[in-house]
# Entry
Amino acid sequence: MGIDKSSLPQIAQANIALNKIESLGISLSEQVTEPNFPTGSDFESNWTSLELVNVSHAYGGESEEHQFTLDNINLKFEPGELVFIVGANGSGKSTLVKLITGLYVPDNGQILFNNRPVTDDNREWYRQQFSVVFYDFYLFARLLGIEENRETEIQNYLTLLELERKVTVKDGVLSTINLSQGQRKRLALLTAYLENRPIYVFDEWASDQDPVFKEIFYNKLLPELKQRGKTVIAISHDDLYFNNCDRLIKLDYGRVVENRAIGNG
# Structure
């Protein structure tokens, strides 16, 4: 049976999506057969260190000269740290956080969590230690892994983020995700905040927020996470708030060129 030519664009898009999934090292069969969504018992709340040791990772364009390499990265993170990652566009910030969170696998070097190497055998477990809002995030209507007895807390955050008139939550399901991009991002922040995992990663969360919500993010939500003992790693261009972090890591075309204590650290 021949293929309808009109369906070729959809097939091509499906192949692109599958290639992206495979590039992240995620097995579709593993995801489908996952028996339970992670709970608090899956999280390493008493962890002491996360370390990247001589980590390198390369990804390329259509030709070899367009290949980009994040090279010889040596970084260490500890519980309760608020760390900003900064650098120009194309410096490797998003690639770095995808390595940190286990979505990309190092080509060389290793990641140690509590001095234990992250390998294929424990990578899925390691990924569950992170709550992440990427720049190109996807928002689910159901609050997966969120306890059902947190309605008051959820309502408080909806009010703080000025979403209480837009969104309600019933039986763990959001009434709508049909919102503006800025509002959707605030809702993604809420769901990540409620997950209560040990480490939080935000990829330019504030880039499309107005000044009011930037201030809430940097001056209220991030410090609250730190006070709860969470480690927060945030990619940021907002130099007005750089003094809020404990440590500033600067990248320049795939290399760490600055790693220093700052502000309240």
Summary: The chain has one domain: 5-261. The longest helix spans residues 211-227. Helices lie at 8-23, 28-32, 93-100, 123-127, 151-160, 181-195, 211-227.
